[in-house]
Design a protein that fits this description.
The complex is a heterodimer of chains A (about 325) and B (about 260).
Chain A: H1 10-13, E1 20-29, E2 32-42, E3 47-51, H2 58-65, E4 73-78, E5 81-83, H3 87-92, E6 94-97, H4 109-119, H5 124-137, H6 153-165, E7 171-175, H7 183-200, E8 203-208, H8 211-215, E9 219-224, E10 227-232, H9 234-239, E11 244-250, H10 253-264, E12 269-271, E13 274-279, H11 282-293, E14 297-303, H12 307-315
Parallel strand pairs in A: 3-8, 3-9, 6-7, 7-8
Antiparallel strand pairs in A: 1-2, 1-4, 4-5, 9-10, 11-13, 11-14, 12-13
Chain B: H1 3-21, H2 23-51, H3 58-88, H4 90-95, H5 101-124, H6 127-130, H7 136-162, H8 167-187, H9 196-204, H10 206-218, H11 232-253
Classes of the chains: A alpha/beta (about 325), B mainly alpha (about 260).
């Protein structure tokens, strides 16, 4: 058994392709392909988001990237370490934030941090310094003696963050970090992530099902049914829409869709009762369509494209299937 | 301290802190066996003597069994927390830490052994009440045997709990397997004169040998009391084999490999 120092320098561990480099990752649960040949590259200091509906494969990807499970197929390099063979090395440079709070409720905040640091090879003065620094940075220094189970959800999340940061990870991986956080705590979290990226150059990889959260990432991958259907900066992806988005709700959607296609000369997307089209001159069309469709229209809207529109465009179905 | 030991010790000391902060667990592992001992011991003593099953009274006969029960209960309580830790999410963060799975197994077993033997020693302190006279050498050798048994039981508990996703499942195994294992170890009744099928179960039960060795050590000065039991050499050998194989089994089950897809 060998121990791996937590403070290896970046240069030796960053491959030219990026801090995280995945190619053709697949994972099966029995017959079901939870992840289907997903490739992605994340550069050092980037905030990379994996956006997708629940069941889209985000969590499986997170479990592979966090070294909890091995991919069935594909290659993965994290901070210069090949997985799964060099797991131990990769683990020492990773910080992982799970969806469920990974704290021992019976231990105090400080004891939780102490335990965590020990698992990463910290001891003595360096362990104490790491606890001091991380609790101060997260503003929980006054809670150190509190039992973890007595803290609110937001505070527990902060302790978790302190925990994953005390080992100064090169890559921080977060699974749905906003889950269970009130809006204020979410703002805090994002402020903190931005700070971490700019101060420490930490690479941040997170999964989310929230569009606004994905919008705050430098780049995102959209995951649906186990496949990465789109990848790029949020603006890039939105620009692919090629204009603004008109959404029409009609009493007779079939007739209305035919009419719209005839008038605009453009294919529309149908999602249930909704008719959707994208056009560079959408604002001109809105008025005209409203007049042509007249009585049948229940509602008509014009909007700048959102990531939800990107998702609909790439997958042909709505983000929230249950709605 | 090397990083490996640091990890093992941190995991073990977490066990100790958790245990001592949950009063019901302390009660379950310590008070329950003692209560059993007082009730069964007191209740069955007259009929045990009348039947001439042993040359000692039942209060005394049941005492070493009570100590082993303390070990068993503690091992159950600490390893069942693997399931709780997995469901609560705590275990996952340990699994992605740069500690080997062997360290996770060792940390759990070390923590369990300290707790189990610590409590067993507290029970052992009641020995004078039974009339068992424990000399210094008997005490040291007895504790060494308890350590060996605790390691084996902790490894067994770990192996059972690792793949399990509910504590109910563990309770079912406890009732159907672990408790009978203790009943049929000579803890509760002597093996002599049992029906053949029960006698067979007693013979293949590793705990039988643990108890035999432990009794032989407690009665170093009175070998007549333990004359019917398996010999010390074979008993010790079985205990060492049991402990080693349970630890190996636990490490094998917990290994860092994709085969444990569901367990991750």
């Amino acid at each position: 058994m060998t121990s791996v120092a937590a403070g290896d320098s970046n240069t030796t561990h960053t491959t030219p392709q990026g801090v995280v480099h995945a190619e053709g990752l697949s994972y099966r649960y029995g017959e079901r392909r939870a992840l289907d040949r997903v490739s992605l590259t994340v550069a050092r200091g980037e905030v990379f988001g994996v956006l997708g509906p629940n069941g889209g494969g985000k969590t499986t990807l997170f479990r592979i990237l966090s070294t909890l499970v091995d991919a069935d197929e594909g290659t993965l390099t994290m901070a210069g370490f090949r997985l799964p063979s060099e797991k131990r090395g990769a683990r020492s440079l990773l910080g992982v934030l799970f969806q469920k709070p990974a704290l021992d409720g019976k231990l105090s905040v400080e004891e939780n941090l102490h335990h965590h640091g020990s698992l990463y090879g910290l001891s003595g003065q360096s362990l104490r310094t790491a606890i001091d620094r991380s609790t101060e940075r997260l503003g929980i220094a006054d809670r150190r003696r509190d039992r973890a189970e007595a803290l609110s959800g937001g505070l527990q999340r902060r302790v978790e963050l302190a925990k994953s940061l005390m080992t100064e990870p090169k890559i921080l991986i977060l699974d749905e970090p906003s889950t269970g956080l009130d809006p204020g705590a979410r703002q805090d979290l994002w402020r903190y992530l931005a700070h971490l990226r700019s101060e420490d150059g930490t690479t941040i990889l997170l999964t989310t099902h929230l569009m606004d959260e994905a919008d705050r990432c430098d780049r995102i991958a959209i995951l649906d049914a186990g496949r990465a259907v789109a990848m790029g900066t949020p603006d890039e992806l939105k620009r692919r829409i090629g204009g603004d988005v008109i959404t029409i709700r009609s009493r007779r959607p079939d007739d209305a869709a035919a009419t719209v296609e005839r008038v605009t000369g453009q294919r529309v997307t149908r999602i249930g009762d909704l008719i959707r089209l994208e056009h560079a001159n959408a604002h001109v069309w809105v008025r005209q369509l409203f007049e042509v469709l007249s009585e049948d229209v229940v509602g008509i809207s014009l909007a700048k494209p959102t990531l939800e529109d990107v998702f609909v465009r790439e997958t042909g179905h709505r983000f929230w299937n249950e709605e | 301290m090397s990083a490996t030991w640091l990890g093992i010790w941190s995991l073990a000391s977490r066990e100790l802190k958790r245990f001592l902060r949950q009063r019901n667990r302390v009660f379950g592992a310590l008070a329950q066996p003692v209560l059993f001992w007082a009730l069964f011991g007191g209740g069955l003593d007259p009929s045990f003597r009348a039947a001439g099953r042993s040359n000692i009274g039942y209060v005394e006969y049941f005492f070493p069994g009570t100590i082993v029960l303390t070990l068993l209960f503690t091992a159950i309580f600490t390893t069942i927390s693997i399931i709780e830790d997995r469901n609560a999410g705590f275990l996952q963060s340990v699994l992605v830490a740069p500690v080997g799975r062997e360290s996770i197994v060792c940390g759990k077993i070390l923590g369990t052994t300290i707790l189990a033997v610590g409590q067993a020693i507290l029970v052992l302190a009641l020995a004078p009440l039974t009339g068992i006279d424990v000399s210094a050498i008997e005490l040291v050798a007895g504790i060494a045997l308890l350590v060996l048994m605790a390691v084996g039981l902790a490894g067994l508990g770990f192996a059972i709990a690792w793949r399990m996703d509910s504590t109910q499942g563990f309770h079912a195994i406890m009732t159907a397997f672990l408790m009978p294992m203790w009943f049929l170890s000579g803890a509760f009744f002597p093996a002599a004169g049992l029906p053949a099928w029960l006698a067979t179960l007693v013979t293949i039960n590793p705990l039988t040998y643990g108890l035999a060795a432990f009794r032989r050590v407690l009665y170093l000065g009175e070998p007549a009391v333990t004359a019917d039991l398996p010999g010390f050499g074979i008993s010790l050998l079985v205990m060492i084999t049991f402990a080693l194989s349970m630890v190996t089994l636990a490490m094998w089950l917990a290994r860092d490999h994709n085969l444990s897809k569901r367990a991750a």
